[in-house]
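INFO batch 0412 | record 1 of 1 | parsing
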Amino acid sequence: MLTRKQHELLTFIHERLEATGISPSFEEMKEALDLKSKSGIHRLITALEERGFIRRLAHRARALEVLRLPEAKVAPKKPRSNVIEPNFKRRPEALVGAVADANGVVEMPLWGKIAAGTPIEALQSHDRTVGFPAGMLSSREHYALEVAGDSMIEAGILDGDTVIIERCDSADNGTIIVALVDDQEATLKKLRRKGASIALEAANPAYETRIFGPDRVKIQGRLVGLLRRY
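INFO prediction complete | emitting tokens
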């Protein structure tokens, strides 16, 4: 089930494509949904893409394709009395996109492997899930990735670990993030901003820091937990 804003955006994109054959701009989407910033549109588009409702067409600006439309049912607006407070005493069932079981464990999608080394293609398979204590998660949406590589070993992240990622599109310097480079490659690195550039730092001296222009890197989430099997 889509949220109300996701449903509104999908409908707006579909109607614009039907009428003109051209995707609306982010500015037009922002105004249509009465949002304050384009970052909210980025999050909504990413959520719709991950749920299989739309697809971004490579090498074309503003190019979106609607793959399917949802049923009429959308999530109702939540009253303000149900706003989740950011503390560890919140109800597990209030976590976005997740429901805790009787033991307080949330099942989240395991999307595949992410490189802790040279970037590799980010897999987004929802065939598997992993469980994580609800009390250790925020009220945002989360997902899990398997780590491939050793570039983050000095941060305690080893090849084969499973990392828990909180979805976000911005982060503070020094935060370990999932970075999407050129809309094609994903990597797990420490974020450093250097002037107008973005540096992705490894936690292993054998790897060089990679520096990109701000338009080449998108933050897909930040590290909030880790699972390891011995």
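INFO post-check: Helices lie at 4-20, 26-32, 38-50.
INFO record closed
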